[in-house]
Amino acid sequence: MTLITEVEGRRVTLSNLDKVLYPATGTTKGEVLHYYATAADALLRHLHNRPVSFLRYPDGPDGQLFFTKNPPLGTPAWVNTAPVPRSEDAGARQVMIQDLPSLVWAANLVVEFHTHQWQAGMPGLADRMVFDLDPGAPATVVECCAVAAWLRERLGDDGLHAYAKTSGSKGLHVLVPLEPTPSSRVTAYAKSLAVEAEAVLPRLVVHRMTRSLRPGKVFVDYSQNAAAKTTAAPYTLRAKAVPAVSAPVTWGEVEGCRDPGDLVFLADDIAPRLERHGDLFGPLADPDRAGPLP
The DNA ligase D polymerase domain covers which part of the protein (predicted)? Predict the structure, then answer.
């Protein structure tokens, strides 16, 4: 079934609303669209003015997954795009999700939203820094929380504010608002903290990607600060067995995590969390919280 609806004056075509995308929970495409509409205010705050890449999973997480950087075929003319420098394509552009109509249009494609750490018009000049904490089994998000707490304190020593969110998968993301800084410098600083974390917590942390080093430890991935890299956006759904969300969390929740299930948040959990906490990542968009790298 195809439905043509109007969203804030834009005609948006929605399709296959009854299609089950997450068999484990019976979550349909229509429910995915409803989630994105209800989380729109918070999500759009973090997509604003950032070129977006999509991980598409139109047949659910068990179907084909493919990453899309270029505007998808059939992108409406009213959906904004921005130039994105790529060595292989000087004229490359990516979609900008700036409002509810473009969000609903993109959500109909069944996507994860991924963004750079810089804004359109300032490629390679990062206003956010990210640490992707990835546990190697048997380590879990519980171990990631211990590393995140160390990073928060260490970043605080340098006058920087840290905020945490679940990855929506196994791990945790720690983000830091910055005064605009070249991505290469942010990457170097993030790497120095990853190396320091391994020196201070050698039984818990590894800073190299080598698979053989990672069992039972948390890989502190600093590489997503590179100008070409992207990270799952706050509040995006992930292509996992259940409709898990990359959800901002309080530091109290991080410090109190004792079981991996403590930090699993599904689509239905987000509206109550937004009502209770507001947008925990709101300070990331506040220039007064942005700090300079030391």
Answer: 28-281
